[in-house]
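hey team, just a heads up i'm posting the complex here instead of the shared drive bc the drive is being weird again. everything in one block, sequence lines first with there labels, then the predicted structure for the whole assembly after. its three chains so it's a bit long, scroll down
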Amino acid sequence: MPLLSATGIDKRFGGVVALHAADFSCEAGEIHALLGENGAGKSTMIKVLCGVQHPDAGTITCDGAPAPYADPAGAVAAGIVPVFQELSLVPHLTVAQNLVLGREPRNRFGLLDQRRMRRDAAALFAQLGFEGIDPGAEVRHLPLADRQLVEIAKAISRDPRVLILDEATSALNRREVERVFSVIRQLRDQGTAVIFISHRMDEVQELCDRATIFRDGETVGTVVIGETPPGEIVRMMVGRPLQDIFPPRNVDTRPSRPLLEVQHLSWESALRDVSLTVHAGEIVGLSGLEGQGQAELLFALFGVYAGVHGSITLDGAPVGRSGPGAAMHAGLALVPEDRKTQGLVLPMSVRDNVIMATIPDHSRSGFIPPAAERQSSLSMRDRMAIKTASVDAPVRFLSGGNQQKVVIAKWLLTDAKVYLLSDPTRGIDVGAKLEIYQLMRELTAAGKGILFFSTDLTEIVGLCDRALVMYEGSIVRELSGPDLTDANLVEAAVGLTDGGTR
Amino acid sequence: MSSTTQSASEMDQRALRQRLFEGEDSWFARNRTLVIAFSLILVLLIISGIRQPGFLSLNNLRQQLVLATFLGTVAAGQTLVILTGGIDLSVAWNLNFAAILFTQTIGGSDDAGRIMFATVIALLAGTGVGLVNGLGVAILRIPSLVMTLGMNTVMLGVTLVYTNGSPQGLAPRFARALATGRIAGQVPWALVFWTGLAVVVIGLLKYSAFGRRIYAIGNNPRAAYLSGAPVRLNLIGVYAFAGLTAGLAGILLAGYSNNTYLGMGDAYVLQSIAAVVIGGTSILGGAGGYGGTIAGAIMIVLLQNALQVAGIRPAGQQILYGLIILMMLFIYGRASKVRE
Amino acid sequence: MSATSVTSGRAARAGRLGGMGRWVAGNGRLILAFIILAVLLAIYIERVPQFGAREQRSVVNQGLALTTTGFGQTVVVLTGGIDLSVGSMVGLTNSVASRITDSESTSRVWLAGIACLAIGAAGGLINGVIVAYGRLQPIIVTLATSSVFSGIALYVRPTPGGAFPFEATQFWTGSMEFRQLPRGMLWLATLVVLWLVFRRTRLATRIIAIGSSEGAAFMSGVNVARTKVAAYTISGMAAGAAGFYLTAQTGNGNALSGVDYTLNSIAAVVLGGASLAGGVGTFMGTIAGSYTIALIPRVLFFYDVSQFYQQLLQGLVLLGSVGLGAIGVLRTRNRLDKV
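-- predicted structure starts here --
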């Protein structure tokens, strides 16, 4: 009997279908992968299983009986413990305090038993083999990789019956990943079910017993890892030949001029001696483990950081570094990683958001004629096929994909020369994704350049002319042409030396 | 319900009603708090009119509106500050100092040049305080609560030192006329002034680039920054404006009471914040506008008058005042969920 | 998200100095607060003709009510909230206490003390419930309740009055046998002990968690609402205790006696290094902040500076201290954090 299962799940957000008649089930004592592209429905299914979201239709059963929980706390109490990408650690508390938050141990005076907390934390890390994490350190001082390890440790300390890991290893190097895997295998052998979501097929192959593949919000099927060839799994994930998803590359053999030239860029300890060039009509990809400097590079180019060393020129002219305004003036545009907190002002209307980067262009003597902004927003809505009842609707009512389109529309209005895209298709539905790919091709056909960071390897392979793999703030490998494959990207991502050092 | 023979005008009416009232982004939904605020004013007027026979006389209503002008002026700056997610606690002594600076500089003379000079430096002083507030908040990232609180204390000190504890000076004729006089004996100059201010502020907030950025900053300063908005400059401008309005109110009040005294601005801090919040602007920033503040200011003045006339002691007035603010918050909380 | 890994640089460097180095790096504002206090205290002691029992009493007593109020404000600020009603609560409990006590009975003094704590707790509870369950912003809720509490205080004591047993006043504000130290030090010491104990409770950890990241606290199963209610109740009780002390100190009840305490307690908390965003702050800092505010008038007195400069200096000290602490912001390399 399956330990945890969901049947016939429907879930819509606004007008977008996230899941449709989707099924999933896992047994005790197995490591079960959840696979699918960005927007296929994996995260939504997990959230439904954990009580974070309620399905519009369908049932969830636990040990054969209807799920006894209705919210995340209840799910954890029932033994279903998730580790999400948005970390649940409190920055100003120590590692030890975070591990026991909500069930802190007390001594006989009723006060916190801090010694016991520290001891337990140290013991837990020793047991799991996570080295180098100081239980007394405040979480806000820890690098991302350490935080991920603490999150995993915290989840395991809750004695889960079902442990869910949603991209929980994205920042870990080879050695740390091995450690975590060996812990997961131990849990499996003890009867825990582990649900594992990852973009990295190699890890899935290595770790998992079975996999359920999602596509376009539906369950495609469940396979046994050893028995199914990887190519078949990818076909199930993707549903059509790669050529059909990603718009064909422009066949233009004329030598194109360099647009964005970056030389010896350094900043703090996050970026070290980065040099790259983006030519007109080219899509250059940034890849590698998460947290290696990709997002920082884009911020540095956009003037968000002070004290950036090195040179940045666009079309031969130096790009001002005093802030986004200067970068925009030079011809750069940045679609940031987190559209909700960085890309959009959610409570404001579609119209407001669309013109937000071009307010001066829309203004006459300091005032914005309503007709001008209406026209811009309507034409952008049509051009990007943004699904919204009216441009006056607050942008927070739109689906993730449409929200992202608003962000992109905002930047299209600036007529920038080089577009910096920071993981633009994260968490959006497949339909919107395809449209964004199409748009990227159109931009390059018009002679623009794109520097594009994505955590989805198939996108890097399918869209980019060249890919730059980053590790610890520098570019360690450049791949292009026939060398640009999933496998090569992964191999380059884990660093030159095996295991990597932090 | 409708037959196919509905007349064209009926359909127009239905469409109009729909656009006004139905759906998430209808006019009514977006301006719900404004509607509630003005409805409550109506209720207050009716109740007061019943309890106090002379209340609804033109004279009295005019008087109330003039009183509301002073509050409304201070609250204009407070509205902008609160819209950006901050708060201005320095209005009390900023106002006070400007008023005293104004009257003491004039020193009883009737010379137009001197009066103009006094006006200018009083406004400059107010704006200057606001500028300092803005610099602290925008550049040093000092929380506005602390920054404006500190400046309030500083201005209290400056006022004490400047006046040696006893303010002097009378307001010049023009200020008195502005605050208490009328055009053609009917429309108070103060109201003309307030109308002008309202047009400027509402126009600024709704249609100007600056106004648009204020809302963006109040909701999500990071996204505004990443879209190229000059966030720090905008913030400094907002606080400077708040300082200017405090200075303006100081001059008006000096004219109204014909002299200045220590503590004349104290009531305005809480009242201006209350006016803004009762008017439907979210204390967190990013939602609301000056229209609501106008309603809030009028409501507060009417309320105080009503309580006084009803014979409720100051103690009771305070209690009711607080309870009503809470009640309004609850009503708005249910009505508009603009913040995530 | 991934850009946050960069901010660990400074702390990591401090970490190499060991735990002590780390503590210093992370508590600059607190240390600054004590330095300022030490300087003021040094000036005062140097200037005053003699620093005997009377002067010591005077210094300690001057800041006690504010420090007590600050205890509660610290707790609330740690949750990321603020309590603007503490001043009114001080006035209210002061007024109520003065109605209970007379010039003779000691048992009435005890009764008044209990009443102050109870009323403070009740007021704080109301604040907490409205903020936590009504989901309204603390700044405006406590602003409204402060008006309500003031009004009630005015009902209780329309005009200042009341009496307090002289011996009791002497007791609370006097000197002890032991080295003639001010008895107020005991009150302070009690507060410090209470804080140290509080700091080691689950409640304190949860309060800091909420202030640091309410979302993460919620995801970890912390009952956010109940914790907030507790925080505001503590604040109310602290204000009540301050009101009681004020009654003992002045022998009098005045509805408006708490007027300065609201903003001064916030100033004290901020001077002491707390962050109004929540998650950072300690009562020790608040003590430093409160006494800094209390000492300024005294120090000015000795420089023959007109009392009119007192406020000015208080404001400048507050701004200066906060400004200095904010200089760190200027050095941040990530402009997004400065927005």
